[in-house]
Specification:
Layout (H helix, E strand, L loop, with lengths): L10 H39 L3 H14 L16 E2 L1 H33 L8 H12 L14 E2 L10 H24 L4
Antiparallel strand pairs: 1-2
């Protein structure tokens, strides 16, 4: 029975191929992570400066979804979700707060007009309770403004394997390592 020529390759060739592809895989995995960090910093800079946050987020999202080793979290006690845009949150909170204050001011004006039309007396004991009742039934709550988390919190998950240089280098490394093991076993057993 003829053995495949693939197994006749000396194990040293597989070892060299494994080392080269392993070094390339490590380099490209590190490059993927460093690029993700730069894109994440661009998101934070756009958030702080009031720039194009959506464009920066889309660039980061596309890169993370397309490359392995681009996990946004760092460490076991990292915050979740890892992208939290504090300046965007502050702007949204202030806008919502201003909207609530404007609505409440308008309701107070409406309450005065309503109560004046109901009670014609300028100073009436019924006017103050009327205004209070109108504001409490028609007013917007004066508590903290609620900002939906989806507007300022983001999390993108990187794939376990991606068809980029890092992914294919890992595949070649795995195949070279398997070839190294099989070739060295064949050589130790003294088979041709």
């Amino acid at each position: 029975m003829k053995t495949a020529k693939f197994w006749r390759v000396p194990y040293q060739v597989f070892l060299v191929l494994f080392i080269i592809s392993g070094v390339v895989a490590i380099y490209t995995l590190r490059h993927n992570n460093q690029t993700m960090v730069k894109l994440r910093e661009a998101v934070y800079a756009a958030d702080k400066n009031g720039g194009d946050v959506n464009g920066a987020l889309n660039s980061l999202r596309q890169y993370v979804y397309g490359h392995m080793n681009t996990n946004l979290s760092s460490g076991g006690n990292a915050i979740k979700p890892p992208i939290q845009l504090k300046y965007t949150y502050a702007r949204l909170y202030d806008a919502e707060r201003a909207k609530i204050d404007t609505a409440n001011a308008q309701i107070y004006t409406d309450a005065q007009s309503y109560c004046q039309s109901v009670d014609q007396a300028f100073y009436g004991t019924t006017r103050v309770p009327c205004v209070q009742n109108y504001v409490s039934t028609h007013g917007v709550k004066s508590g903290p403004a609620l900002v939906p988390a989806g507007l300022y919190q983001f999390d993108f998950i990187s794939p376990s394997w991606s068809p980029d240089l890092a992914g294919w280098s890992l595949v070649v490394s795995g195949l070279a390592f398997a070839g190294f093991i099989l070739s060295s076993i064949r050589q130790k057993l003294g088979r041709p």
